[in-house]
Amino acid sequence: MYMVFTNKGGSMADIYQYSDYRAFLRDWFKEQKSSKPNFSHQYLASKAGIGSSGFVLHVMKGERNLTKSVLLKIARAMGLSANQTDYFEDLVSFCQAKTQSEKDFYFSKIAAARKSLSVKNLDDQQYEFYSRWYNSVLREIITIVKDSRPEALAKLLIPKIAPSEAKKGFRVMEKLGIIKKEKGGYAQTEAFIEGGGPVRNIAVINYQKEMLRVALEAWDRFKETEISASTLTLCMSEELVEKIKEETREFKKRLFQIVADEQKAPERVYHININFFPVSKAVKEGREV
Question: Measured in Å, how far apart are the chain's first and last C-alpha atoms?
């Protein structure tokens, strides 16, 4: 494992293994506390030149954010090197980004820094898996074909992809452990997978956007009998919104079960998009909220 050291010689949690700066701060603090029982949030704040003794604790809990000037003070107090401080700053920017494009930008910097140091991190593979719409399709289609070589499968996808893209996708999935090599091709290790976590969440959003693009193009690629679409526009309370979200989650579970229980051999890979979003501002008692 790649290790770094404090200015007092003690080992420090490997910052390059983190995609969440708050988790890194919590683990680093726990490590310091275990070797120095008197170490405290107040001591760290004092060493960093921060007036509020409880500020760092609030940051760790997600109750406060870090500004650039404060994160530099904390990085110096922690004994981070210049490169580690740059990485820490990118972590903070990634976690506190308000838009998807900002998150993508800073995660690309995080992944590049890890790659340059040959640091292996599962988050990078998960991000790459969900950032390509066709990876999930490849993973499904290997269950219904005899020849699951990347070259053969690339031709079956709609729209088609290059064999090199299929090969790269299989490498990513192998590293994630969600497929395995078998004689003549590949096989799934799990029947179903779901995304989650801060890194996967931003990649899943990109994946959803890509699939919406593919769905839009489907109207020109398939016969009307091959696709199905339904749209509703309704007024409802915020309380009912939560109920409908729960209903969609339950519906997805039922779909999983229906597919799992099917007795006939699968013949084709399908994608189902479920989108639920507001198309107006909130209004209460006839006034805009």
Answer: 52
- Give dist(CA 208, CA 175) in Å, integer: 23
Least Cα distance to 97 among 123, 127, 65 occurs for 65
Pinpoint the alpha helices (H) of 97-224.
100-116, 122-130, 133-141, 150-154, 163-176, 198-221
What's the rounded Cα separation, in Å, for the pair 63 and 276? Answer: 29
**Per-residue pLDDT tens for 161-173?**
999 999 999 999 9
Domains and CATH numbers, the chain: 4-113 (1.10.260.40), 121-219 (1.10.10)
pLDDT at residue 29 in the model? 93
Indicate yes or no: pTM above 0.85.
no
Contact 193, 178 (CB under 8 A): yes
Token pair of 245 as six digits? 């979200």
Helix (H) or strand (E) holding 139: helix 133-141
Whole-number pLDDT of residue 4: 30
Nearest to 21 by CA among 116, 104, 86: 86
**Cβ neighbours of residue 143 under 8 Å, at least 6 residues apart?**
187, 188, 266
